[in-house]
UniProtKB/TrEMBL annotation:
Its main location: membrane. Residues 21-294 form the Sugar phosphate transporter domain. It is found in: Membrane. Keywords: Membrane, Transmembrane, Transmembrane helix. Pfam families: TPT. Residues 335-350 have a biased composition (Polar residues). It comes from the Eukaryota. PANTHER family: SOLUTE CARRIER FAMILY 35 (PTHR11132). This is Sugar phosphate transporter domain-containing protein.
Length: 350
């Protein structure tokens, strides 16, 4: 299998792993929070990252991947920023209505497109922009209900959008700049993310729930679901870095909205959540947007590959010019100019 084929297979595998693991952890956490009453989301996320780091440390000791240290300031800043973005998203959900929170998540895609266009000079074609608009419209129809605005909630949502976009763009740029894999980046940044949330998590959860995470009644059933959630999170965190590194932050956000649609569908089928024709219409429109986005991205990728191939062939043709220029010295033309000689069978036989 060629290099290009291997990349495509790796990308499909990363996307599949991300979808399966994310939907699984949403269902697990929903049972943990809704049925068992464990509603401390930020603290739970810090445990997720701690378990992820420990799992990767074990994998490193087994030589399943190579540790590649790079600029410590970049890793520290990236890890802390990721932790802050997660905390702000949880605060946004706590201080806003569910509908406004969904609008916050929808705003991440256009914000990412804007930042990449302005600061990274990345170009998005009209076709890709149209497909993203269709996708956002569909997800909006399916998920956004009430829009209750308040000043504090709006500020928190704006900060959550900006930090999330920057963190996801950094995930892609750091991997390419320092030539590190998703596993290597996650291994080095996970402790800073975990520490940021571990310190701030109990305070944020207490602010949002008026409960103390350390005073919660940890029954065996709760502990089992917490352990299960942490184990699934290893796959979630790994696949997140893998998808962003192999594709782009925008593609990862598109994938996130696919997960939202799947969670709605699974919730209706498995948990008998309320479902309406509006949900069905929104999911259908969102799927059309996702298909269009995938189609246009594939076309653009093939076009770039053809352009790169033609440039390579042109360079090879220029290097293998049939004309051989020979400098003629005293034994040739007396004026010292160059003489062009045709290299052919006839000349060799003469």
């Amino acid at each position: 299998m060629g290099e290009g084929g291997g990349f495509q297979l790796g990308t499909v595998g990363a996307l599949t792993l991300s979808v399966v693991s994310s939907v699984s952890i949403v269902i697990c956490n929903k049972a943990l929070m809704s049925s068992l009453g464990f509603i401390f989301a930020t603290t739970l996320t810090s445990w997720h990252l701690l378990v992820t780091f420990c799992s990767l440390h074990v994998a490193l000791s087994m030589k399943l991947f190579e540790h590649k240290p790079f600029e410590r300031k970049a890793v520290m800043g990236f890890g802390i920023l990721n932790g802050i973005s997660i905390g702000l998203l949880n605060l946004s959900l706590g201080f806003n209505s569910v509908g406004f929170y969904q609008m916050t998540k929808l705003a991440i895609i256009p914000c990412t497109v804007f930042l990449e266009t302005v600061f990274l000079a990345k170009k998005f074609s009209r076709s890709v922009q149209l497909s993203l608009s269709v996708l956002l419209l569909g997800v909006g129809i399916a998920t956004v209900t009430d829009l209750q605005l308040n000043m504090l909630g709006s500020i928190l949502s704006l900060l959550a959008i900006v930090t999330t976009c920057i963190a996801q763009i950094m995930t892609n740029t750091i991997q390419k700049k320092f030539k590190v894999s998703s596993t290597q980046l996650l291994y080095q940044s996970a402790p800073y993310q975990a520490l940021t949330l571990f310190v701030s998590g109990p305070f944020l959860d207490g602010l949002l729930t008026n409960q103390n995470v350390f005073a919660f009644n940890y029954t065996p059933q709760v502990l089992i679901f917490i352990v299960l959630s942490c184990l699934i999170s290893v796959s979630v965190n790994f696949s997140t870095f893998l998808v962003i590194g192999k594709t782009s932050p925008v593609t990862y956000q598109v994938l996130g909205h696919l997960k939202t649609c799947l969670v709605l569908a699974f919730g209706y089928v498995l948990l008998h959540d309320p479902f309406s024709w509006r949900n069905i219409l929104g999911i259908a429109v969102a799927i059309v947007g996702m298909v269009l986005y995938s189609y246009f991205c594939t076309l653009e990728g093939q076009q770039k590959a053809r352009e790169a191939s033609s440039q390579t062939l042109q360079a090879i043709d220029n290097e293998s010019d049939p004309l051989i220029r020979v400098e003629v010295g005293a034994g040739g033309n007396t004026d010292g100019t160059s003489q062009t000689v045709w290299s052919s069978n006839k000349d060799l036989q003469a």
